[in-house]
Amino acid sequence: MKEAYTKLMLQQHTSEDAAFYEKLEQAQPKRKTHPLVRAAIVAACICLMIPVTAWAAKSIFGVVKITIGEGKDFEGKDAVVMHRDVENVEHIPLEDFSPYLQELKETEWLYFDSWEDAEEKIGVDFLNNTILDDENTQPYTRKKKYKYDERGLAYAALKTKATPYRGVYYAADEQFFSASFSAEYYRQRIRFMITTYMTADHPLMTEEIFLVYHGFGERYYKENVNITIEEYVTKNGIPATIYYKDSDSPFGLIHPYAYFSVNNISYHIEFTQFDSQQGETGAQTKERLLALMREILDGFVIE
Fold first, then answer.
1. Which end of the chain, N or C, is less packed with Cβ atoms under 10 Å?
2. What is the residue-wise DSSP string for 229-282?
């Protein structure tokens, strides 16, 4: 039962089907009282006695680790497996989130008007980024998505609120579990998205689920792919990891990604769309994209 519940929890990250949550509730394992629980509470109380200076020495930065190896994908085919892990990132105490999230009973998808609006509703502080206020950066809004019927006529398949700021609050066992918030922008003919992930203390949290809800875990690629990993320290001293997959296409590479974690919040940056400039070689496109990625990372400020 516990294994089935864990699988459903992992699926929850991408599911919006109401029937799915009914199955999730049915698969929920029964809670059991165990002597180790009482021991853990005692241990937690003892931890509270540790001097504040001991906690002050702890780094606020997470450590992202990416390893590449050979393995099998979900269909059992040979694949390149990229395992993304993060260390020195912990759950945020439930009481540190907003009162609304502390009382959350079910998963919610919602929209925000700004990063500040999200901070107020979630109850945490995100890092500011100077280039997001730059006149050359515009929020990107997805108003409608279209599909085509059997006659080839387009129809609106999904209408969304006209805002680039989107979030989701996840709940499990009628208790807040995790939150993510994303915003999409357009700069230098490149569209990029910044997403933040955070998790709360929860009795059903496992290491595997923790990685998924911080946006990590495993990704699979076809064989003979060349993945480059770059360790980068921003101008403000934030250690980040950039990776990209080289390609034989005219673009030179496929959408670079960057990760870092600060104060138990994971930040992901990805390029969702870009245009090749006229007369530009693949190598030049690659350098242009990576230059912008570093510029975005350098824009994050720790106050």
1. C
2. EEEEE-TTS-EEEEEEEE-SSTTSEEEEEEEEEETTEEEEEEEEEE-PPTT--H
